[in-house]
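In response to the reviewer comment on reproducibility (Comment 2.3), we provide here a single inverse folding case reported in full, input and output, so that an independent group could reproduce the run without further information from us. The C-alpha coordinates appear first.
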Protein backbone atom coordinates (compact mmCIF):
# COMPACT_ATOMS: atom_id res chain seq x y z
CA UNK A 1 0.00 0.00 0.00
CA UNK A 2 2.86 2.39 0.83
CA UNK A 3 4.33 1.99 -2.67
CA UNK A 4 1.05 2.96 -4.33
CA UNK A 5 0.64 6.04 -2.11
CA UNK A 6 4.20 7.10 -2.91
CA UNK A 7 3.61 6.64 -6.64
CA UNK A 8 0.35 8.58 -6.37
CA UNK A 9 2.10 11.49 -4.60
CA UNK A 10 4.85 11.54 -7.23
CA UNK A 11 2.26 11.41 -10.00
CA UNK A 12 0.11 14.16 -8.48
CA UNK A 13 3.10 16.37 -7.69
CA UNK A 14 4.50 16.06 -11.19
CA UNK A 15 1.24 16.84 -12.94
CA UNK A 16 0.31 19.65 -10.53
CA UNK A 17 3.65 21.31 -11.38
CA UNK A 18 3.00 20.78 -15.09
CA UNK A 19 -0.48 22.28 -14.78
CA UNK A 20 0.85 25.27 -12.83
CA UNK A 21 3.62 25.82 -15.39
CA UNK A 22 1.12 25.76 -18.25
CA UNK A 23 -1.03 28.41 -16.57
CA UNK A 24 -4.50 29.45 -17.65
CA UNK A 25 -3.36 30.54 -21.11
CA UNK A 26 -1.86 27.30 -22.48
CA UNK A 27 -4.88 25.05 -23.17
CA UNK A 28 -7.21 27.72 -24.66
CA UNK A 29 -4.45 29.09 -26.88
CA UNK A 30 -3.41 25.58 -27.90
CA UNK A 31 -7.02 24.62 -28.71
CA UNK A 32 -7.38 27.72 -30.92
CA UNK A 33 -4.00 27.13 -32.61
CA UNK A 34 -4.62 23.42 -33.23
CA UNK A 35 -8.06 24.03 -34.75
CA UNK A 36 -6.74 26.94 -36.83
CA UNK A 37 -3.59 25.21 -38.01
CA UNK A 38 -5.64 22.27 -39.26
CA UNK A 39 -8.78 24.01 -40.53
CA UNK A 40 -8.31 27.76 -41.09
CA UNK A 41 -7.08 27.38 -44.67
CA UNK A 42 -9.53 24.50 -45.30
CA UNK A 43 -12.47 26.80 -44.55
CA UNK A 44 -11.02 29.83 -46.34
CA UNK A 45 -10.19 27.78 -49.44
CA UNK A 46 -13.68 26.29 -49.38
CA UNK A 47 -15.15 29.77 -49.03
CA UNK A 48 -13.12 31.00 -52.00
CA UNK A 49 -14.80 28.35 -54.18
CA UNK A 50 -18.12 30.00 -53.38
CA UNK A 51 -17.40 33.62 -54.35
CA UNK A 52 -16.16 35.54 -57.37
CA UNK A 53 -12.83 37.33 -57.60
CA UNK A 54 -12.20 41.03 -57.10
CA UNK A 55 -14.48 43.63 -55.57
CA UNK A 56 -17.49 43.42 -55.24
CA UNK A 57 -17.69 39.85 -56.63
CA UNK A 58 -15.76 38.63 -53.57
CA UNK A 59 -18.85 39.49 -51.52
CA UNK A 60 -21.35 37.72 -53.77
CA UNK A 61 -21.90 33.95 -53.64
CA UNK A 62 -21.70 32.29 -57.06
CA UNK A 63 -23.96 29.62 -58.51
CA UNK A 64 -21.29 27.20 -57.28
CA UNK A 65 -21.98 28.31 -53.71
CA UNK A 66 -25.65 27.48 -54.14
CA UNK A 67 -24.78 24.15 -55.75
CA UNK A 68 -22.51 23.24 -52.82
CA UNK A 69 -24.77 24.40 -49.99
CA UNK A 70 -28.27 23.67 -51.33
CA UNK A 71 -27.65 21.38 -54.32
CA UNK A 72 -31.15 19.98 -54.83
CA UNK A 73 -32.75 23.43 -54.80
CA UNK A 74 -30.12 24.81 -57.17
CA UNK A 75 -30.63 21.89 -59.55
CA UNK A 76 -34.41 22.38 -59.43
CA UNK A 77 -34.02 25.90 -60.86
CA UNK A 78 -31.37 24.82 -63.40
CA UNK A 79 -28.67 26.80 -61.56
CA UNK A 80 -30.49 30.11 -62.14
CA UNK A 81 -29.92 31.56 -58.67
CA UNK A 82 -32.26 34.49 -59.37
CA UNK A 83 -35.14 32.00 -59.05
CA UNK A 84 -34.11 30.97 -55.53
CA UNK A 85 -36.10 32.58 -52.73
CA UNK A 86 -34.31 35.02 -50.44
CA UNK A 87 -35.82 33.42 -47.35
CA UNK A 88 -34.58 31.00 -46.31
CA UNK A 89 -32.36 29.72 -49.12
CA UNK A 90 -30.35 32.77 -50.20
CA UNK A 91 -29.87 33.76 -46.58
CA UNK A 92 -28.58 30.26 -45.81
CA UNK A 93 -26.10 30.48 -48.69
CA UNK A 94 -24.96 33.97 -47.66
CA UNK A 95 -24.56 32.95 -44.01
CA UNK A 96 -22.77 29.71 -44.92
CA UNK A 97 -20.40 31.44 -47.32
CA UNK A 98 -19.47 34.29 -44.98
CA UNK A 99 -19.21 31.90 -42.02
CA UNK A 100 -16.45 29.98 -43.78
CA UNK A 101 -14.36 33.15 -43.91
CA UNK A 102 -15.26 34.87 -40.65
CA UNK A 103 -15.68 32.16 -38.01
CA UNK A 104 -12.25 30.49 -38.34
CA UNK A 105 -10.47 33.87 -38.26
CA UNK A 106 -12.52 34.98 -35.26
CA UNK A 107 -11.62 31.74 -33.46
CA UNK A 108 -7.92 32.12 -34.23
CA UNK A 109 -7.91 35.63 -32.77
CA UNK A 110 -10.18 34.75 -29.87
CA UNK A 111 -13.04 37.09 -30.80
CA UNK A 112 -16.32 36.13 -29.10
CA UNK A 113 -14.63 32.77 -28.61
CA UNK A 114 -17.50 30.95 -26.90
CA UNK A 115 -20.13 32.13 -29.38
CA UNK A 116 -17.76 31.56 -32.32
CA UNK A 117 -17.05 28.01 -31.11
CA UNK A 118 -20.75 27.20 -30.82
CA UNK A 119 -21.34 28.69 -34.29
CA UNK A 120 -18.52 26.59 -35.75
CA UNK A 121 -19.91 23.45 -34.11
CA UNK A 122 -23.28 24.23 -35.71
CA UNK A 123 -21.59 24.93 -39.03
CA UNK A 124 -19.75 21.60 -38.92
CA UNK A 125 -23.00 19.78 -38.09
CA UNK A 126 -24.81 21.43 -41.02
CA UNK A 127 -21.85 20.81 -43.32
CA UNK A 128 -21.86 17.14 -42.31
CA UNK A 129 -25.63 16.89 -42.89
CA UNK A 130 -25.26 18.43 -46.36
CA UNK A 131 -22.40 16.05 -47.19
CA UNK A 132 -24.47 13.04 -46.12
CA UNK A 133 -27.87 14.10 -47.44
CA UNK A 134 -27.00 15.87 -50.67
CA UNK A 135 -23.55 14.66 -51.72
CA UNK A 136 -24.25 10.97 -51.29
CA UNK A 137 -21.51 9.86 -48.93
CA UNK A 138 -21.44 6.11 -48.46
CA UNK A 139 -21.62 4.48 -45.01
CA UNK A 140 -17.86 3.92 -44.79
CA UNK A 141 -17.19 7.64 -45.27
CA UNK A 142 -19.83 8.55 -42.70
CA UNK A 143 -18.63 6.06 -40.10
CA UNK A 144 -19.95 5.90 -36.58
CA UNK A 145 -18.62 6.12 -33.07
CA UNK A 146 -16.67 3.12 -31.83
CA UNK A 147 -16.58 1.42 -35.23
CA UNK A 148 -13.58 -0.36 -36.74
CA UNK A 149 -13.04 2.36 -39.39
CA UNK A 150 -10.74 4.94 -37.87
CA UNK A 151 -10.68 7.53 -40.63
CA UNK A 152 -14.25 8.21 -41.69
CA UNK A 153 -14.82 11.71 -43.02
CA UNK A 154 -17.83 12.52 -40.86
CA UNK A 155 -17.72 10.85 -37.45
CA UNK A 156 -14.00 10.42 -36.92
CA UNK A 157 -12.64 13.50 -38.62
CA UNK A 158 -15.31 15.96 -37.62
CA UNK A 159 -15.56 14.68 -34.07
CA UNK A 160 -11.90 15.60 -33.71
CA UNK A 161 -12.61 19.02 -35.25
CA UNK A 162 -15.37 19.64 -32.72
CA UNK A 163 -13.45 18.64 -29.59
CA UNK A 164 -11.33 21.82 -29.25
CA UNK A 165 -14.46 23.84 -30.04
CA UNK A 166 -16.34 22.21 -27.18
CA UNK A 167 -13.51 23.09 -24.82
CA UNK A 168 -13.46 26.70 -26.06
CA UNK A 169 -17.25 27.01 -25.84
CA UNK A 170 -17.09 25.94 -22.20
CA UNK A 171 -13.88 27.69 -21.08
CA UNK A 172 -13.50 30.62 -23.47
CA UNK A 173 -10.46 31.88 -25.37
CA UNK A 174 -8.21 32.34 -22.34
CA UNK A 175 -6.02 35.29 -21.35
CA UNK A 176 -4.25 35.46 -24.74
CA UNK A 177 -7.25 36.42 -26.88
CA UNK A 178 -9.02 39.50 -28.16
CA UNK A 179 -11.83 38.67 -25.71
CA UNK A 180 -9.44 38.96 -22.76
CA UNK A 181 -7.84 42.12 -24.17
CA UNK A 182 -11.24 43.81 -24.50
CA UNK A 183 -12.28 42.65 -21.04
CA UNK A 184 -9.06 44.01 -19.50
CA UNK A 185 -9.57 47.31 -21.29
CA UNK A 186 -13.17 47.69 -20.11
CA UNK A 187 -12.21 46.62 -16.59
CA UNK A 188 -9.47 49.28 -16.53
CA UNK A 189 -11.91 51.96 -17.69
CA UNK A 190 -14.50 50.94 -15.12
CA UNK A 191 -12.00 51.52 -12.30
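Designed residues, in position order:
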Amino acid sequence: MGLFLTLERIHDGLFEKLEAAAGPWFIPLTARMVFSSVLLMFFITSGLTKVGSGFPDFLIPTAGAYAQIIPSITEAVSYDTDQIALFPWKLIVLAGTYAEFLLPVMLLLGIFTRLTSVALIGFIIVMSFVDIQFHGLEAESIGMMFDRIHNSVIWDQRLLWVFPLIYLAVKGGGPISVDALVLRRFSARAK
